[in-house]
């Protein structure tokens, strides 16, 4: 998939483009059904035919299938169905979805891709209450397309699961503030929330964690109402907002736009982060008033960057 195909959606419109893919799964009764998943199209470089290869016996993880040469790069290929604990039916028409995010190029084996859907984040429902053997740690949202559901896969969680050093790096101890700061953190990934909580607590932050932008905005408005009722400063409740960009119900751009357009909340510094901090996305973050933007491979610097913003305001 070429970069030219990606559409740069207007900042703050709470929209994204999802590439729909599917895995042909064999059920216990022997029948085969397609299961539909989705990823942000901006993470996809291209889709290619899958070569005929099997996972090496020496592989450290059963998901690893081998390496392929793409654009003069040796790219690891992962069997997405194995990570999702599915019994995939292999065929000659299988494809590899080549992705680029978090400073890594990775191939994922799937049965095929269908089309690109442009959806609003408000259409993406959290997976809570959805009964699936896959589990909600892997799926960050559900999109109802009428005749079937598309499950949004947390690809960052896949890579973090396969490389535990990612987590260790993100929670390394760094600078520590002289006073306790209150940070509101919004992310739909439990893995990333845990990373950030440990990183921020080590720097003398008191983090309040929520699952998406809508929950964050609701919490901020509740803080504003309490501030006005109790006659206290906003800093008694929250000092800074830290948010992922891609989240169900409301994305980080829309959250930031709502914060910065509010006469009271607009004074809060906002840090956005994503595995896709490209020049285009950085421009979008700037346009909605984000005070800083960080790529997910650099989450270990989050506390330091937050302290720099807060100390600059003091």
From TrEMBL:
Domain of life of the native organism: Bacteria
Signal peptide location: none
Keyword Kinase: no
Domain Response regulatory: 182-311
Residue ranges occupied by any CheW-like domain in the UniProt entry: 15-164
GO terms classed as biological process: chemotaxis; phosphorelay signal transduction system
Keywords (A to Z) from UniProt: Phosphoprotein
Modified-residue entries (4-aspartylphosphate), positions: 244
One Pfam family, short name: CheW
SMART domains per record: CheW, REC
Descriptive protein name: Chemotaxis protein CheV
């Amino acid at each position: 998939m070429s970069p030219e195909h990606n559409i740069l959606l207007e900042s703050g419109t709470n929209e994204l483009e999802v590439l729909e893919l599917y895995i042909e799964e064999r059920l216990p009764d022997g029948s085969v059904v397609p299961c539909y998943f989705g990823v942000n199209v901006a993470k996809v470089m291209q889709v290619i035919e899958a070569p005929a290869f099997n996972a090496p016996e020496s592989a450290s993880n059963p998901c690893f299938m081998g390496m392929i040469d793409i654009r003069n790069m040796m790219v690891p290929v992962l069997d997405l169905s194995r990570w999702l604990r599915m019994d995939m039916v292999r065929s000659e028409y299988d494809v590899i979805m080549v992705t680029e995010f978090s400073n890594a190029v990775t191939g994922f084996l799937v049965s095929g891709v269908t089309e690109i859907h442009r959806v609003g984040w408000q259409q993406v429902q959290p997976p809570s209450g959805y009964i699936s053997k896959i589990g909600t740690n892997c799926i960050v949202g559900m999109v109802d397309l009428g005749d079937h559901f598309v499950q949004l896969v947390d690809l960052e969680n896949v890579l973090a699961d396969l490389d535990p050093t990612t987590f260790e790096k993100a929670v390394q101890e760094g600078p520590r503030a002289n006073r306790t700061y209150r940070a509101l953190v919004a992310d739909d990934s439990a893995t990333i929330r845990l990373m950030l909580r440990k990183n921020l607590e080590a720097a003398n932050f008191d983090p309040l964690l929520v699952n998406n932008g809508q929950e964050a905005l609701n919490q901020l408005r509740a803080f504003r109402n309490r501030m006005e009722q109790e006659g206290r400063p906003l800093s008694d409740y929250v000092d800074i907002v830290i948010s992922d960009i891609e989240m169900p119900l409301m994305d980080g751009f829309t959250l930031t736009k709502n914060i910065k357009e509010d006469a009271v909340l607009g004074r809060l510094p906002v840090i956005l982060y994503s595995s896709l901090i490209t020049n285009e996305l950085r421009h979008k973050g700037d346009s909605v008033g984000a005070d800083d933007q960080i790529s997910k491979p650099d989450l270990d610097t989050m506390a330091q960057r937050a302290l720099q913003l807060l100390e600059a305001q003091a």
